[in-house]
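User: I'm new to structure prediction. If I give you an amino acid sequence, what do you actually give back? Let's try with this one:
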Amino acid sequence: MRLMHVDASPKSSLSNSKMLSAYYVDLLKKQIPDLEIDYLDLSIDTPPHVSGDFAKATYTPASERTDEMKKVLEYSDNLCARVLMSDMLVFAMPMYNFSMPSSFKAFIDNLVRTNLTYNFLADGTTSGNLTRQKVIFITARGADLRPGLSPWAGMDALTPALRSPFAFLGVENPHFVDAQPLQFSDQTAREEALKRAYSELESIAKEWMS
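Assistant: Good question. You get back a string of structure tokens that encode the predicted 3D arrangement of the chain. For your 210 residues, that looks like this:
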């Protein structure tokens, strides 16, 4: 079994999303001792942002790409291969201004690739190639954006921004664990939020192992 663990927080030991994702991966490792972990910290190995040269190279048939085009696509090619080889995908990040860190947006932009992670079908529709992977998104949020519990719930731009591109790539039912609210002004709510998140992670780990 192979698991790809991606962290998108620029913080180190102080990151809530990193602590939560490390806890989840450790739960899985206890159940699968020989689990192969492919770890990617986007604050260290940040994907290149899409450029004009990148777009031109992706729309050029693979057999016609120049050496320069191949070099431009090298990071993306390797990233797609790592994701496709994985059986489990663990993505963790903080919420920034109601959405994702720019490093994870760049990750998505490098992952959505024609004839690699998705294909065009004869009828003009598309088919994603990430259909067998188990996927979980772990997010840390300062505000409480839970539907029905927060007047700001409608401002959650992160969940749909994650769900949509991965659905396009074939991920139908990803899990979401959102630790919220984590603001320091209310320590009681913060502790309860983390307790809920750890409990949810334990339940999902059991489900993945069943």
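You can read the tokens as a compact description of the fold. Here is one thing that stands out. The longest strand covers residues 88-94.
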